[in-house]
């Protein structure tokens, strides 16, 4: 249920169930988790792009698969089912390399929140972000309650979660839900340009930047400053730091190895 391709240090993972707008069933979720885990481990991968096949990014949990599973007398609690998504979210946040969500068309429910777990988001101008959960009487899961207020502030987060109105690509850019919104015709080119630019960057430093930003959100200033010191010691020890300084002094472009 996935398409995978790799070029110039970028791995593109495409969720591929276009007939249901790439709704998650168990198989696709498991394959995606494995593909992300593989990309996290591989030294050849220096940037990961997550996107959807066809006209959508994703429509959330596959509701027909989920409804039939719930009719089973031994159906497990939703919280157990969610643990599989939580593993994916943690992998994305903790992998020491940049992850981009590239959103074309609809991103609803847990698919929207998987996109929010990524480090950067690029949207096509036909993107539609929908925190659809309350439409079916559910709370935002897949980290929605955590990611949304941190990205767009509490007021907008509550608005998206309670009213469940669609947020367009341009509006998503305006409120900081995505980093960039581009015309649909330029979406693939722009996505690959951004991904390749990151894949040529100081990968280990990007991993440290993720740690710095994500951990700083949840700690006090003294702890954040202590963390900054530790991470800067680690960044200072990278070959890419030495290369960056040398390139500056020699007035040339740096060639980062990602080490
Ligand atoms: C779908 C789906 C879908 C199956 C479109 N499933 N077929 C919940 C429970 C438990 C644990 C984990 O977490 C969750 C979290 C969640 O993600 S809850 C939220 C689940 N998602 C939704 O509630 C969204 C449901 N879909 C929609 O509201 C619409 O399809 C949207 C607004 C996404 C797109 O609308 P349209 O562009 O008008 O497309 P469409 O509705 O015509 O959909 C195309 C096809 O895809 C259609 O099938 P058909 O056979 O009629 O062509 C849909 O039934 C199917 N599809 N989403 N989640």
Automatic annotation (TrEMBL):
It comes from the Bacteria. Keywords: Isomerase. Signal peptide: none annotated. InterPro entries: ClpP/crotonase-like_dom_sf (IPR029045), Enoyl-CoA_hydra/iso (IPR001753), Enoyl-CoA_hydra_C (IPR014748). One of its GO terms (molecular function) is isomerase activity. Belongs to the enoyl-CoA hydratase/isomerase family. This is 2-(1,2-epoxy-1,2-dihydrophenyl)acetyl-CoA isomerase. It comes from Ktedonosporobacter rubrisoli.
